[in-house]
Design brief:
Elements lengths: L2 H7 L20 H27 L5 H17 L7 H12 L6 H14 L2 H21 L7 H82 L5 H25 L22 H10 L4 E5 L9 H21 L5 E8 L3 E8 L14 H12 L3 E6 L5 E7 L14
Parallel strand pairs: 1-2
Antiparallel strand pairs: 2-3, 3-5, 4-5
Helix pairs in contact: 2-3, 2-5, 4-5, 4-6, 5-6, 5-7, 6-7, 7-8, 7-11, 10-11
Keywords: ATP-binding, Kinase, Membrane, Nucleotide-binding, Phosphoprotein, Transferase, Transmembrane, Transmembrane helix, Two-component regulatory system
Catalytic activity: ATP + protein L-histidine = ADP + protein N-phospho-L-histidine
Pfam family, one: HATPase_c
Length: about 425
């Protein structure tokens, strides 16, 4: 999958109308049922005192009291529809509350739900209608125990308080969703970067294997040509050439098994004639680092470095090269110890360790892609690689690569 396709799969930031609970078709969860029941009970509890005041007034006809009870019950039941039609429920309750004081509690719940689940524009429009109803209701149904101004101010303050509370809850939910989306995006981008680094490592390994394979085939061609043009060569020379051809063919088959499935970057020039690093060239790498000013010590405990398999030696060389580069970048001036041990049947182990730098320096930013590439390279070679900070503040890279007991030594080049 390409980087563009990955970006299409990344979650987008939530739109202003896509908060949890905004969608009309969403099924109620257990939490939603608990919230709806609590909202219904709160609206009913707020309606009871208003109905008690109306019922206690002897001038109120019984028919009006009965109608108030029915309207209050219908207002509370209308709250069950607020998830599907929050705007229309709030508008209807605002109109009803203009003539029915017992519907004020249901209106407050509807306004809070509207402010939580809808953007500012519809909330402001419905809130303006509710404020107008709060000014009209004391005129049509005045409270005997309170003045018109006091009733109007209290009603408007309650409406503004509920709407403000709902908008705060909505803002907090949007913040949580945004932070969650950023975390998901960061993890996705990190996965993309790691995948890109692994792909680059595979391409580099494929190029190196291609170069080695070209060298093997060149050996086959040279020695086969020698046998063709010198059919009268001594038997010892013919046998030696045949042995080189056999070993080169065997190693070429091994390289073909490794290169299958690894993609080689298109558009790059043919570099098949360049020499490939091996375990035997590791001392030269250390000398290069010393010439550059690094304090590097090499402890090579391998009895026969030239006998190590070419692919394994090349991988070990690349690990040492990247580890020394990282040490120069992130711990300049600190001594670096390179230790190599192992042999046929036991495998090869390399450890590159450095203590914490003692001199101040300007840190070089790093992305960690080199270490990801080293891990991928060691994994493709059948080994393992670990890295991390040491207890003394330094850094250690440790890798183990296989070296079969019956591995064929690298073939010599044509003479």
């Amino acid at each position: 999958m390409t980087r563009t396709e990955h970006r299409w799969l990344l979650p987008s930031a939530p739109a202003d109308h896509e908060l949890p609970g905004d969608r009309a078709g969403a099924r109620r969860t257990a939490r939603d049922w608990a919230v709806d029941i609590a909202a219904f009970l709160c609206a009913a509890g707020a309606a009871l005192p208003a109905l008690g005041v109306v019922d206690a007034d002897p001038a109120t006809p019984d028919g009006v009291v009965f109608a108030d009870v029915l309207i209050a019950a219908a207002s509370c039941c209308a709250l069950w529809l607020r998830r599907r039609r929050p705007v229309w429920v709030a508008v209807a309750l605002a109109v009803v509350s203009a003539v029915e004081p017992a519907a004020l509690g249901a209106l407050m719940v509807a306004l809070f739900s509207l402010a939580v689940h809808r953007p500012f524009r519809p909330v402001a429009s419905v809130g303006a209608a509710a404020l107008a109803a709060a000014a009209v209701q004391p005129l049509l149904r005045p409270d005997p125990a309170s003045s018109y101004i006091a009733s109007t101010v209290i009603g408007m303050l309650l409406i503004l308080l509920v709407i403000s509370w709902g908008m705060v809850v909505r803002s907090r939910r949007r913040l949580v969703l945004t932070l969650r989306d950023r975390v998901v995006r960061a993890e996705s981008e990190a996965a993309l970067r790691a995948e890109h680094a692994q792909r680059l490592a595979r391409e580099a390994i494929a190029r190196e294997m291609h170069d080695v394979l070209a060298h093997r085939l060149t050996l086959l061609s040279v020695h086969a040509g020698a046998l063709e043009f010198r059919p009268d060569a001594p038997p010892a020379e013919v046998g030696r050439a045949a042995g080189v051809i056999r070993d080169s063919a065997h190693e070429a088959l091994q390289d073909l098994r490794e290169i299958i499935g690894v993609l080689r970057s298109p558009g790059e020039g043919d570099e098949g004639n360049r020499p490939q690093p091996t375990l035997a060239t590791l001392p030269a790498l250390v000398e290069e680092s010393r010439a550059a000013g690094a304090r590097v010590t090499l402890d090579n405990g391998v009895a026969d470095p030239a006998g190590a398999p070419a692919a394994t030696g090349r991988t070990l060389y690349r690990i040492a090269q990247e580890a020394l580069t990282n040490a120069r970048k992130h711990a300049p001036g600190a001594p670096v110890a390179v230790t190599v041990t192992g042999g046929p049947g036991d495998g090869l182990t390399i450890e590159v360790a450095n203590p914490a730098p003692t001199e101040p320096f300007d840190p070089v930013p790093g992305s960690g892609q080199g270490l990801i590439g080293l891990t991928e390279r060691a994994s493709l070679a059948g080994g393992t690689l670990t890295h991390g900070p040491a207890p003394d503040g330094g850094f250690t890279v440790l890798a183990h690569l296989p070296w079969p007991a019956d591995a064929q030594p690298p073939s010599p080049g044509p003479g």
